[in-house]
Amino acid sequence: MPTFGKVATCTSPAVWMVEGYSGTGGTASLDRTVYACQRHQVTAEAQWLRGLIPESRPASGLHWCGTFTDYDPEASG
């Protein structure tokens, strides 16, 4: 079951959806999604994904910077 949270205190609307993948090629797995404002996109890719492989795309809908979804039940925070 997914877990949800916030990794930053930024209150800006997110313009980026940053996905974090583990594994490679055909075995890659989406483990975390984090939303980021323009100012925090690099931080999201480098820190908020906790070492996962990043892939960024423009966010759709209204989301706030720093909010995340963990798809791995073992992951938290």
Give a written overview of the molecule:
- The protein is mainly beta and 77 residues long.
- The chain has one domain (3-70).
- Helices cover 10% and strands 38% of the residues.
- The protein is built from 1 helix and 5 strands; from the N terminus they run βββαββ.
- The chain has one helix at residues 41-48, and strands spanning 3-6, 16-22, 29-36, 53-58, 67-70.
- The protein has a 5-stranded antiparallel beta sheet, with helices on one face.
- It is globular, with a radius of gyration of 12 Å.
- The model has no long low-confidence stretch (mean pLDDT 91).
Order of helices and strands: EEEHEE
The helix fraction, in percent, is: 10-25%
The strand line-up of the biggest sheet is: 1-5-3-2-4
Count of DSSP E strands? 5
General form: globular
Our count of domains comes out at: 1
Largest sheet: 5 strands, antiparallel
Estimate the mean pLDDT confidence: 91
Strand share of the residues?
35-45%
Distance between the termini: 15 Å
As a whole number of angstroms, the C-alpha radius of gyration is: 12 Å
**Unreliable stretches:** none
Secondary-structure-based class equals mainly beta
Tally of DSSP helical segments: 1
